[in-house]
Design a protein that fits this description.
By secondary structure, the protein is of the alpha/beta class. It has helices spanning 39-42, 44-54, 79-93, 105-116, 134-137, 141-157, 164-173, 179-192, 195-206, 211-214, 234-243, 264-276, 294-304, 309-316, 320-334, 339-348, and strands at 3-9, 15-21, 26-29, 58-63, 98-103, 121-127, 221-226, 248-252. It is built from 16 helices and 8 strands. It has an 8-stranded mixed beta sheet with strand order 1-2-4-3-5-6-7-8, sandwiched between helices. Helix 6 packs antiparallel against helix 9 (195-206) and helix 13 (294-304) crosses helix 15. The chain is elongated, with a radius of gyration of 22 Å. Residues 355-360 have low confidence and may be disordered.
């Protein structure tokens, strides 16, 4: 699958690599644990998902700081740093409103991003994710000790295909996989980052807690989780769904953290994704929008994208007074009393979709 790799700069000057693939409505993948934009296509665990998504969406992915094609030598590996990377990529790609697919810790990052940028995120599709990292959900000192022991084992066995760490890691992520899956995991790990960076990512993810943020998510959310997931327990998926207002929860019959394309849960996953984030944007309803003039429709389009009056005026080369007059007429024709009501009605009808053409 062809992808275009580009670079942008995060808030602290870190160079971040991102990639676009496919064609269709936008879909953003929040960066998960360790990534490499090129080697993910070779990884047996990721390739099927990326190929499928790119057939139906314009997929935006990125390598977070310290990983893949992004800068490796970085001092700041933190949640704020990850969010700044996300923000830089969205700005560089020019995406305005979009759904996010978050896998594992990428789901926690997606939750935090959605709360900080509610005007951008239309939907959250969270797979195998958590609101509490391992250290936050550890119930005993022994559990804490085991979490920290994993750091030392990872340092010793990183990217070593014969090491017990890799075998155990691959077996946890995909118990249903085979030796080739294990080999491709090793290749992805070796290319993605150093052992020390991997441990720093482990530590940050294990200490993450986005429960407060989850309770403040306002966009439609679907949480999907395999019932026998050994990396993130199914209870964490249920907790996440319970924290996010009105989130829908789907439980899959699988033991795999990342699903295999030959298991029944894979088809269910794709069906749920297609239903929740349709590849074809909904057609605009004719009424009450059929009464709008072309320019009034343009103003409503920009309203639905979250623009203020000054931004609308600049986009359409109008004065702010003229924009206010247009908005008044739009409110009258739609039968609404305020901006918020107009935006809800417009978005429900398909306005605000990135890529819509304005009349000049």
């Amino acid at each position: 699958m062809k992808q275009e790799i580009r670079f942008c700069t995060s808030a602290d000057g870190t160079r971040i690599a991102y990639a676009l693939s496919g064609k269709g409505p936008p879909l953003v993948l929040a960066a998960n644990w360790v990534t490499h934009l090129e080697y993910q296509w070779l990884n047996l665990s990721w390739r099927a998902l990326l190929e499928t998504l790119s057939k139906h969406y314009t997929v935006l992915r990125y390598d977070t700081r310290g990983c893949g094609l992004s800068d490796w030598n970085v001092a700041d590996i933190s949640l704020d740093g990850w969010i700044h990377d996300f923000e830089a990529v969205i700005s560089a790609a020019g995406f305005e409103r979009f759904p996010i697919l978050g896998v594992c810790q990428g789901g926690a990052i997606a939750v935090e991003y959605a709360v900080r940028h509610p005007d951008q995120v239309t939907k959250l599709f969270l797979h195998a994710t958590f609101a509490r990292g391992r250290l936050k959900r550890a119930a005993t000192p022994r559990e804490v000790e085991l979490v920290k022991l994993r750091y030392e084992v990872a340092r010793a066995g990183w990217a070593n295909e014969s090491h017990a760490f890799l075998r155990a890691f691959a077996a946890m992520w995909q118990p249903g996989g085979n030796a080739e899956h294990q080999r491709s995991w090793c290749e992805l790990q070796r290319a993605s980052c150093t052992a020390e960076t991997a441990v720093r990512h482990f530590q940050l993810a294990d200490d993450m807690d986005v429960r407060d943020a989850a309770a403040r998510v306002r966009c439609p959310t679907l949480v999907i989780h395999a019932e026998q997931d050994q990396v993130v327990p199914v209870e964490e998926g249920r907790l996440c769904a319970g924290l996010i207002p009105n989130a829908r929860y789907v439980q899959l019959e699988s033991e795999n953290h990342l699903l295999l394309e030959n298991e029944p849960a894979w088809a269910r996953f794709l069906d749920e994704l297609a239903a929740f984030i349709p590849a074809t944007p909904p057609a605009r309803k004719q009424k009450p929008f059929s009464d709008l003039s072309a320019r009034e429709a343009d103003v409503l389009e920009l309203l639905a994208r979250g623009r203020d009056n000054a931004q609308i005026a600049a986009s359409l080369d109008l004065s702010e007074k003229t924009v206010r007059n247009y908005i008044t007429r739009v409110f009258d024709k739609l039968g609404v009393e305020n901006r918020a009501q107009a935006i809800v009605l417009a978005r429900d009808a398909g306005f605000g979709v990135t890529g819509a053409t304005l009349v000049k």
